[in-house]
TrEMBL record:
InterPro entries: Integrase_cat-core, Retrovirus_Pol_polyprotein, RNaseH-like_sf, RNaseH_sf. This is Integrase catalytic domain-containing protein. GO terms for molecular function: RNA binding. It comes from the Eukaryota. The keyword Nuclease does not apply.
């Protein structure tokens, strides 16, 4: 799980970031539009409504060390659901390289289709 935040500014109420999730088993990417200033609670609700409600709970979730994902809220949610919370190692692309590659692909698609 990672965020793409290098998007051009839109209007006041428009989305200006994407939350990128990749299922490591099937390599299926999920791109959820969000805002840079979303709180951890906003992010958790968005993941619950758009991902977990369709796929079910995950056994293990690997995320980067973004403050949105390191809050006590996430630790409490994972202990409540009985899932494992893992953080990627800094400067080791082996742990989150798939998400980073998906972010590059998404940026390329946005540039081609939106003249960004």
């Amino acid at each position: 799980m990672d965020c793409l935040t290098a998007l051009p500014p839109g209007g006041d109420r428009s989305y200006n970031a994407y939350l990128v999730l990749v299922d490591r088993y099937s390599k299926t990417p999920m791109f959820l539009p969000c805002r840079k200033d979303d709180t951890p609670m906003d992010t958790a609700i968005m993941i619950w409504n758009n991902v977990i409600s369709h796929t079910g709970l995950f056994q293990n979730i690997m995320r980067d060390r973004d403050p949105k994902f390191t809050s006590a809220l996430w630790t409490n949610l994972h202990s409540l659901f009985g899932t494992k919370l893992s953080f990627s190692t800094a400067y080791h692309p082996e742990t989150d390289g798939l998400e980073e590659r998906m972010i590059q692909t998404l940026e390329d698609m946005i540039r081609r289709f939106c003249a960004y």
